[in-house]
Amino acid sequence: MTVPSKYRDETPDGVVVTKGLDNNLIAYAKADFDIFAESMNSISITDPNLRSFRREILGNSAELTYDSAGRILIPLHLRKLAGIEENVMIVGAGQYFEIWDADRLENFEANSDPKAQANAWASLNITTTRGN
User: What does the alpha-carbon distance between residue 5 and residue 18 come to, in Å, rounded to a whole number?
Assistant: First the structure.
């Protein structure tokens, strides 16, 4: 898969691709993924939810580097998890980008409820004002 130059510029050392939370894949810069993994590893393994999450995210991760054409080769097991066969969409999401099978993304978006989504987002209390 060819990664657009915008994302390659933000992740010059390659990416760590892992299972996403919406039947997709997530690609992090290696340094960002290391911070994420360390956060998970700092929590006790006695929590069964964390063990499951750690298994899904860390156990399904692959460190990938770009070839000379800016491509990454996503391992087959990750492509199967995300249903990626031919048409791929990349969606920027701040510190990471998502990798979707195009049909799966279209279906995900078509089945989302805009009103429920707006209510869920409002509960996140996100602001553009610093310090809040």
Answer: 20
Can you give the pLDDT at residue 45?
A: 84
- Tokens 């899904």 correspond to 56
pLDDT of residue 129: 63
**What is the value of pTM for the model shown?**
0.84
Domains belonging to the chain, first-starting first, are 5-103 (3.40.1550.20)
pLDDT at 19: 95
Low-confidence ranges of the chain (pLDDT < 50): none
The pLDDT of residue 123 is: 77
Reduced 3-state DSSP string for the chain: CECCHHHHHHCCCCEEEEECCCCCEEEEEHHHHHHHHHHHHCCCCCCHHHHHHHHHHHCCCEEECCCCCCECCCCHHHHHHHCCCCCEEEEEECCEEEEEEHHHHHHHHHCCCHHHHHHHHHCCCCCCCCCC
How many residues can be counted in the chain? 132
Spatial separation of the C-alpha atoms in residues 18 and 82, rounded to whole Å: 10
